[in-house]
Amino acid sequence: MCPNSSIYSDEKSRVLVDKTKSGKVRPWREKKIANVDYFELLHILEFKKAERVKDCAEILEYKQNRETGERKLYRVWFCKSRLCPMCNWRRAMKHGIQSQKVVAEVIKQKGSVAKF
């Protein structure tokens, strides 16, 4: 047994606060609570994907930047169910970022935004 196991376990199970670059706290807890409600519904209806939904975003792994000390989400497992609140929220954030990149590229190529 490793002598630092209690320190290591405390570090692994510590609750972190995830913030955007603007300082807004991301609502992981609220989404996970809604996810559990969705799981209970699927479990009552005996859907096979209920267990996947239950385990959705159960563990979040962060990596710390050595220079800045900033932590960034490194690994997480999602259930990929279309109705899962956690997956919908992450998918919406992903699509928003992709849209921003597309608009930025269009502005860079065209010089200005075309009016429709």
Task: Please give a quick description of this structure.
This protein has 116 residues and is mainly alpha-helical. Helix content is 49%, strand content 9%.
Write the layout of secondary structure elements.
Blueprint: H1 5-13, H2 28-44, H3 50-54, E1 60-64, E2 71-76, H4 85-110
Antiparallel strand pairs: 1-2
Keywords: DNA replication, Plasmid
Protein name: Protein rep
Organism: Enterococcus faecalis
Explain what this protein looks like in three dimensions:
- Helix content is 49%, strand content 9%.
- It is mostly helical and 116 residues long.
- The protein has one domain.
- Strands 1-2 form a two-stranded antiparallel ribbon.
- The longest helix has 26 residues, at 85-110.
Question: How much is the average pLDDT?
Answer: 84
Helix content: 40-55%
Using only CA atoms, what is the Rg?
Answer: 19 Å
Give the termini separation. 66 Å
Strand content range: 5-15%
Largest sheet: 2 strands, antiparallel
- Shape, please? flat
- Number of structural domains: 1
Detail the poorly predicted runs: 1-9
- So how many helices? 4
How do the strands of the widest beta sheet line up side by side?
A: 1-2
Order of helices and strands: HHHEEH
The number of strands is 2
Structural class label = mainly alpha
Family: Belongs to the Gram-positive plasmids replication protein type 1 family.
Keywords: DNA replication, Plasmid
GO molecular function: DNA binding
InterPro entries: Rep
